[in-house]
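Worked Example 4.2. Read the sequence first, then its structure tokens.
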Amino acid sequence: KIRDVLNHLADAEAVSPTLNEVIDKYIEENSQFLTSANSTDYILRKLKQSLGTVPIKDLTSDNVSAMVVTLRKTVKPATVNRHVQFLRAVLRRAQKQLLKSKLEVH
């Protein structure tokens, strides 16, 4: 669940990148695997517009809920679900990177 990932990221001791930085890294590492480039680009741009400047350790379920409420006013439920799926994927990637960096330090 996104809430679990957010809670873990909030506990991070290191400097937290913004969601923009995490999305950019996600695209860099996964671009060859992403299907439907136009819709993927649209979704990731929307995520960056709505939450991009927020450091991931400060991202809360309230932020995500507000984004969902805003999206529901303009797009279909399936599109909202895709936004949440991509956000979850991006945050999981950030969580894995955080764990990896902690293991390398210790």
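Now turn to a second chain, presented in exactly the same format:
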Amino acid sequence: AWSPNTLIDLVGNNPALHQRLLEKFLVNATGQAAKITAAAAASDTTTLTGIAHTLKSAARSVGALALGELCQNLELLATLHMRQSAAHWLQGWMQSWKPPASQFEAI
């Protein structure tokens, strides 16, 4: 789920600022998505944990709540070194990544 009110609550009703923040989030999140995929492929749970944590916070800050929850689960699984479960969550990650971007573009 995505909450369009998150940015309003955080920085006020300023559509231009919201657009800039969302654009910056999408650029950064796209890079982080690639790093998550690479870390998972390499079974690098330390890197995976760190990136998932960072993206979790950023996603929640802009209202991408489902993505934030997915990152939280991925972070926990990576912390516990549950590679097989993390791989399962990574599949969910790949399916969930596109919707927030398309929703943000509508703003």
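Notes for the reader: The two ends are 15 Å apart (CA to CA). The chain has a mean pLDDT of 83.
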